Prior knowledge:
single chain; 237 residues; alpha/beta; TIM Barrel; eight-stranded mixed β-sheet; 8 strands; 36% helix; 22% strand
Amino acid sequence: MQGRIHSFESFGTVDGPGIRFVVFMQGCPLKCKYCHNRDTWNVDKGMLVNVDEVVKKVLREKTFIDSSNGGVTVSGGEPLLQAPFLTELFKKLKELNIHTCIDTAGSLPVSQEIKELLKYTDLVLLDIKHIDDEKAKDLTSMSNKNNLDFAKYLNNIGKPMWIRQVLVPGYTDDKYDLQRLKAFIDTLTNVEKVELLPYHELGKYKWEELGVKYPLEGIKSPSEEDIQVAKNILEIE
């Protein structure tokens, strides 16, 4: 089976525990204004790669993965768009005793294909785009319903999860919204970690290379004070 892949990263250190081999999948249904992987949106771009080719690449890094208690993280784009491919990949990785992780926005309805994939997934990094539905639509072009329903489903099946929130000044830093996010997280029993990711412009050049106007032109990264306020509300050390 082939998957449409944007790129690979051999020594990921911010995509789950330990050193990770990161697979960036091609295609995404969201249109996040702060996206730093703008070139992954188009579902028809990227490389067609089969599962065995990906496994070979992973095995070249297995010494580093094993020594750091790391694994493989699949990101994107939106990985869940290619659930059958990932299921086959994760089955083979589990046979090799390699930790599997999905970095996702959970923006698709929970289908049988996704449920099957989650059987072979050790950890989910879930990016909650915005706790307010109308603000989520403005920020990402889509409702947050699937996003939050996915979190609830992971909770129901007891799947370990890290929740991520990108802190974008003027968009996701409202104190009341952060309090609502904290209240939602408190309803979940499977959250192992909450991460706050400060907004940055490092992906802006990708929009420019594609000839597309960058939506957050002029928005600066949050200050250290803003970050600390948000961390306090979310009770992140």
